[in-house]
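User: Can you model how glyoxylic acid sits in this protein?
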Amino acid sequence: MKFVVWMANHLENRAIVDDYIARNKEYLNGHELVVCEDLESIKREIADADVMIGWKITPNILACAKKLKWIQFGSAGIDHTIFPELLASDIVLTNLSGIHTAPVAEHVLALMLGLTRRLDIAIRQQKEHTWDRSEMARTSDELFEKTIGIIGLGKIGLSVARIAKAFGMRVIGTKLSVGETLPNVDAIYLSDELDKVLMQSNFLVLVVPLTIETKAMIGKRELDMMPNGAYLINVARGAMLDHEALAEALASGKLKGAALDVFLQEPIPSDSPIYDLPNTIITPHTGGSTPRYGERGSAIFKRNLDAFLSGGEMINVYDKGRGY
Ligand code: GLV
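Assistant: Here's the modeled complex, given as structure tokens:
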């Protein structure tokens, strides 16, 4: 069989991506693997390829594929590369859901602790060689005995729950279906009971996939429902959040702080007002960054490869109805 790798947009993570591809290659003994770095080569090589490994496909590349059966994407969410022709095709789409469970959960806690312990001020003052206790002492806060609302009790959400519990937090959150108990979660709500979660959450964490239901899910109305002085952390997708409403909530003091790893437009342009949001920590979509990407990604790829070659059941298959 022929496998093609389309490196689009991933040259910036080169060492980590190379590790993932090298590990996948080890499993492809006896098969052809072609790595494509420019548009011309992928358009040529995908024509007779059976499988694509990559991060993104576009309508013009898809149009060149004559026998493609499976695409293994390199991210957990693949909302950025879904378009009508792809949905209409029979190509099986699989993602790397699960790969970010540890790093994103740790990132969330790092952001929460950074906000409450005011590491943003400390880092700024350290750079300026300034010793000033006033703002940090006045505004530092705690996680202990606060309520964290996790929007999306999936793999990452449950990992956040585990760590939050260890910090003595009350953990609540939403899920598409309830009925089972979940470890480290004190109360589970259905996705359409978001308001109940908002009203209780001192920390609201978005870790849900981007779908029609979750797009623009947090606006002024939702932020107003949160307790005064709450914090918002978004490590999911920028399109879920109204950034103007967030700016207002931060300026009025309704929210005490925010941390954002994802944005509607990435990279954020350097003149974006998002950079100037008060009491906000911004990370450039690095929540999932980890040296263990290749190891974990190739384990998922291997499992799917075995299933694909033997006609077995693949994991992490994109569900066209559900939208993730
Ligand atoms: C990152 O945002 C991913 O979906 O993998």
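A couple of observations from the model: The pocket of glyoxylic acid is lined by residues 75-77, 100, 288 (CB under 6 Å). The domain at 101-282 is CATH 3.40.50.720 (Rossmann fold).
User: Helpful, thanks.
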